[in-house]
């Protein structure tokens, strides 16, 4: 696991953007794993800027998002599908038929999880997976206690995660209680992982990631066993290292 230490959120987003553009430009049919949340917003803004400047094209890119809420329609203001369209896809030349998010309104959610996993395998696995990390070490929506051997599955969201995400909803009662997420094993099968961590609220989590034990109690810790992980971390998040 390689740590790149940067000053602030902007620098983290700039470095992540450069890594991602290099990857897209190196591979003929790149497959990217994408995250939502606050952390990658700056990265997505940068990608749009670079696209507008003609430095990157997404024409041959396939994407798989980590997760989606259960019960929210694709076009719901809080769905991750809508987030991705507004923050990235609407502004670049990606082919929407190559964009994938789990369908949280599927009639048979178990079948949807299996189908999603199959689509990732058929695409030839993820070349570069972008990750953020929750304060409890969750990656995707894999909360503490999730099996390291999990594939895409349905999860009950931890109270701390619902609370953290309630900032986007009218009230905490409106935050869905379940989500579909790539599993830990799905994430670990990515060829390369780029984890972005910013802000002092994540300082404890970064210290645990760097120095704690590898345990299902802290899902991100498994990344230490992955052969190709880069963590871009800013000064705030490094405060307890
Ligand atoms: C979202 C996701 C989550 C977030 C995590 C951090 O797709 O996978 O694991 O990365 O909850 O969220 P932010 O970036 O809002 O701090």
Written overview of the protein:
This protein has 241 residues and is an alpha/beta fold. The chain has 7 helices and 10 strands. It has helices at 9-26, 41-52, 80-87, 109-122, 159-165, 184-188, 203-211, and strands at residues 2-6, 31-34, 62-65, 67-69, 99-100, 128-131, 153-156, 178-181, 193-197, 229-234. The strands form 2 sheets. The chain has a 7-stranded parallel β-sheet, covered by helices on one side. Helix 1 (9-26) crosses helix 2 (41-52). It binds fructose -6-phosphate. Fructose -6-phosphate is lined by residues 35-39, 66-67, 132-134, 138-140.
Concise description?
The chain has about 240 residues and is an alpha/beta fold.
Strand content: 15-25%
Structural class: alpha/beta
Under CATH, the topology can be stated as: Rossmann fold
Largest sheet: 7 strands, parallel
Proportion in helices: 25-40%
- Can you give the mean pLDDT? 97
Give the CA-CA distance, first to last residue: 15 Å
Give start-end ranges of low-pLDDT stretches.
none
Strands in their spatial order, largest beta sheet: 1-10-9-6-2-3-5
Which molecules other than protein and nucleic acid are bound? fructose -6-phosphate
Helix and strand sequence: EHEHEEHEHEEHEHEHE
């Amino acid at each position: 696991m390689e740590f790149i230490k940067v000053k602030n959120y902007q620098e983290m987003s700039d470095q992540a953007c450069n890594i991602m553009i290099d990857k897209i430009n190196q591979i003929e049919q790149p497959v990217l794993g994408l995250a939502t949340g606050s952390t990658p917003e700056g990265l997505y803004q940068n990608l749009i800027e670079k696209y507008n400047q003609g430095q990157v094209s997404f024409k041959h890119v396939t994407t798989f998002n980590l997760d989606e809420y259960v019960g929210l329609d694709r076009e719901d203001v809080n769905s991750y599908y809508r987030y991705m369209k507004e923050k990235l896809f609407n502004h670049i030349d990606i082919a929407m038929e190559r964009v994938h998010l789990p369908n949280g309104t599927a009639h048979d959610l178990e079948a949807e999880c299996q189908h999603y996993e199959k689509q990732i395998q058929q695409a030839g696995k993820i070349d570069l997976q972008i990750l953020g990390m929750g304060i409890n070490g969750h990656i995707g929506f894999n909360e503490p206690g999730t099996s390291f051997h999990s594939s895409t599955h349905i999860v009950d969201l931890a109270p701390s995660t619902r609370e953290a995400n309630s900032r986007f909803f009218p009230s905490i009662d409106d935050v869905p209680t379940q989500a579909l997420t790539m599993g830990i094993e799905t994430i670990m099968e990515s060829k390369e992982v780029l984890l972005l961590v910013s802000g002092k609220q994540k300082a404890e989590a970064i210290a645990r990631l760097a120095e704690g034990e590898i345990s299902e109690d802290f899902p991100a810790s498994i990344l230490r066993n992955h052969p190709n992980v880069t963590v871009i971390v800013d000064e705030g998040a490094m405060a307890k290292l």
